[in-house]
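Submission sheet (multi-component)
Chains listed below:
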Amino acid sequence: MLGSISNRQATWFVHKFRRADLLRSADEETLMLGSISNRQLFQPRSLTDALSMLRDEGPLVPMAGCTDLYVALNFGTLDDTRFLNLWPLDSLRRIEMRGDVLSIGALATYTDMRRSPLVQKILPMLVAAAREIGGVQVQNRGTLGGNVANGSPAGDTLPVLAAADVVVVLRSAADMRRVPFSEYYTGYRRSVLGPGELIVAFEFRKLHGRQWFRKVGTRAAQAISKVVMAAVAGDPPRIAVGSVAPTVVRLPSTEAALGRGASIDEARQILLEEIAPIDDARSTAEYRQRVAANLLARFWNDSFITKSRRTRNL
Amino acid sequence: MRSSRGLKAVGRNVLRKDGVEKVSGAARYIDDLSFPNLLHARTIRSTIPSGHVVDIQYHGDTTGFTIVDHRDVPGRNIVALIDDDQPCLAERTIRHFAEPIVLLAHENRERLNAVDVQIAYREATPNFDPAASKTSFKTIAIEKGSLDEGFAAADVVVEGEYRAGHQEQLYIEPNGAIAVPAGGGITLYGSMQCPYYVHRALKVLLGLPDHKVRVIQTETGGGFGGKEEYPSMIAGHAALLALKAGRPVKLVYDRVEDMVATTKRHPAVIHHRTGVTRDGRLTAIDIDALFDGGAYATLSAVVLSRGLIHASGPYRCDHVRIRGRAVMTNTPPNGAFRGFGAPQTQLAAEIHMDRIAGQLGLDPVRVREINALRPGDTTATGQRLGDCSALQVLRAAVERSAFKRRRRALAGTNRGIGLALFFHGSGFTGGGEVALASKASLALTGRGARIFVASTEIGQGTRTMHAQIVADTLGVPYDCVEVNAADTGEVPNSGPTVASRTCMVVGRILQRCAEEMRERLGTLTPGEYLRTHGPLVITKQYEKSSAIAWDDHSYRGDAYGSYGWACDVVEVEVDPDTWQVKPTAFTTVHEIGKAIHPMLASGQIEGGSAQGIGYALFEEVVMRDGRMANCQLTNYIVPTTLDTPAIDVVMLENPYKHGPFGAKGVGEMPIDGPAPAIINALRHMGIDLREIPATPEKIMAASAERTGSGITKSRSARRYTKPSSKTLHALREKP
Amino acid sequence: MLFVRSPRVIFSLNGKRTRTNAHPMKRLLDVLREDCGLTGTKEGCGEGECGACTVLLNGAPVNSCLVPLVHAAGSRVTTIEALGGRHRLQRAFVEHGGAQCGICTPGMIMAAIALGPRPSIEGIRAGLAGNLCRCTGYSSIYRSIADASRRALVRPAQKHAAFERRARRAR
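Outcome: structure written.
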């Protein structure tokens, strides 16, 4: 019953009208709304169980906090019918030190991260990002793994992960691999995650230098980012921006320029070449460019407030 | 009128009648109701903005479905309102995206959604530009004095064009209705403001007599005008299905459908040309307004009318011409929204006033003091004002907010302060109340009385406030006054719950009922009276004061029985990096005659002001090819807790002799002022914006035009005050 | 181990052990309203923006429109109906104008409960940022919550007699 149906015909426009259709442009292909009774849910008892199901029964859509998934299901923009419930797998919720590496399980919620003394100590910029994601209700359910798996270029934690050079731990029934975050996304909402793989954890090495985070959304709370930046004032600095390209981006040239002592005006120019924002229903490319450049300056100003630097930067 | 001494309910914050049910989750809204054998319904809508339906095909299993199209309409296929131009179900012509064409009903929602209706169209070229529209729904001209004379007396002429976009009402409960076939007729339950609008629309649509249609308002989760006329449409759809199926039918929109298909505030472009003397006196006002009505007339004519009557603001001027048109475009129809045209026109008037002040080198308070209407002055329609509190609210707001001191203190920073002076007519425009001839009834009960009015409780406190008026007039405790449900089978037609009329107009009729009941009771208690004389029901009808005169042809005379007066002062902070505007302080002074229930009245002012802040800063309907592209709450941005400043409300009382206990209207006025006050606060910072919403993108552009490089460089470098800690996270260094 | 269609889901609903045969992927919101008959929880948007559907899941506020039933399995679910109309927050919302049209109110109160005792104004604003109200402009909601937290400390004796009476009638 599910699957693609209506197509555009030569002179007539054939269409039906449901919530899913309202959200699409008129000439996109339309999909049947998924009906609940057609949905199959796979309920693993352990991670091993989940990985076997994924191997044997896949493709399955993993379900974590459902704050993105259920929006898509409610709006009928997702036509998948087979789901894998990861939520009960508490082993994926751990936040712990492994040697000198901070490991955050994929199912750790934003609330878990905000409350974790380890995250507060080692990754304050992640706490800042988690605090600004949606309301409390969303923070209680949304997970770090879900934010990464959803892969929206506006995902609020993604610049933090990029700036921190996190390692994404992927597991399949047969294998485990560690992928540097810079290699994780391959395009707009596309990643290296294989069909039989799950994101299980994120590994952070301690960072040197002040951490900085700023989200510029459509309003003060419950907002989707127009520009979101995370940065670490190390030597050289690390800077990542979201909502300005098909995926979250690091700014290697800007970082290098600042690292070698370039002026902030010079760095702003370089930044503009490293991002490629677009116009959409929420903002404009020009706004995103100018704000990204301003945030860069603000980060730099906030991070190095010695008198001489300040004079030079401003 | 009684003195307020000795009043036990009026003027006090008695417990609201519907409070306990609402906080306990017991209140039943439309989607909370169910009936045996209930069918669920779905609306199939156009996916083009203009053209013709060529063919309709059904794919999937439609056995057991009830399917309705225009051929199933037993009466006239219109949504009866003012102009009968809008079909309840499109026949052939499509004038806007999301126009209803076919209705489906089935008991199983999954099966309902599984059917695919394919509609083939022949598309026509749509027009989305009001200025290019060839169809006017209404043209109005208001003239006073002679413009030539006025401009001849002017030293300076100031001209400008101002724009406002759509605004979505965004009641949190979407539109919905349940129709139940009953004895050859229909009983309709729904979320609505105006049961008798729905009643009339159903009679016309279904070809039924009065007594075969019964409309019952269910608990209504916000309206703001959005449930003034649209419920007639959704009720018609549910009723058509229910009659055909012979079973109850529930039709409740989800958020997306509600945003895409239902009415919004009219976008408007308003042009001002004003003559003014060097010392700041207005000599001539020439205003031209263009309202985008969308695809059908709905209430555009009256929205335009109220808009134009308020267009010159609360100012005196001998020579005025206000012209306006509401025109058709191929977008979903625009309709009623709190303020009803006045927010758009007073936005323009108040930005323009600050520009006049700027050109003359006067401060914004001074130019308003010079020109504010005073008792004895005449408005643009020639209405001579007895009472007028424009100067009082202005002075009170300026003093309370320390406007002048703050204006000096903030000069040259990334913060600004602005004000707006505004007014709002209570009740229907012109002869509207006479035409409505509203009725209200009061029935004696063993304990006190029971109120029968069609005025609806939509959050603003109708039940509570009416009961207070009756209690004190009748001399019984507030708890002894009950309020009947707004059910057309039981209550008389008190007119619609709109236009800030529920307290002032309907409340006054109820007060007259209670006065007569008091007389009849004499020395008897209600219980004694009932035992001695049997039931007592008193019904009264609206009576126009002989002092009120209006001529609808010349648009001259007393446009409203009375006006409320208000002044908003807003401080804003603009983030130098992001151009985001944050209102940091908000003072509002409202003169509303008499606050029957100060807390409810203040709640109206706070809530209306918050909607006005949204209108000013965030709320933008992104229209693409005639359809709302941001039809989700994720992308249509209304203020959250963190976007709304504390609102300092001051209510002044100046009793209106024809209002109950002196009360005037309060519901709409608060939304007229915040947007111009905020835009004027930005102007204080040197940002010349003449359009809302003032999104960061627009402020960026306006700042760039002004300085060539934007406020970031010119201001932030040297005079930047610290952004609030909420928005900036400079995090501590690693230990 | 594998569900296809519907095995029984068991959870605690307002302190009562509850079983349902509803599909495990049905929204908790719909299960509460349709299968359990508790219509106090409202739907405003279906996308986790408005907070009208807020319930407590193991004591933490969540948007029930974004929670599959299966995620409530073995958990405690608390809805507005659990408060019985006499909770101090409910009283305060009536007395201070925190409820106008009332459609956001149940969700608002459930989110407010999770603020804990004596929240600061900043805590209230941050904690309610996921609940939209279109009527009040929020100030009266803050006043309601502030008053309720004061009441938690001092119990006035008779002031609320009228409220109690009305609350009993409503039930």
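Remark: Chain C touches chain A at residues 1-5, 23-27, 46-49, 51, 54, 57, 60-63, 65-68, 70-71, 111, 114, 126-132 (CB under 8 Å).
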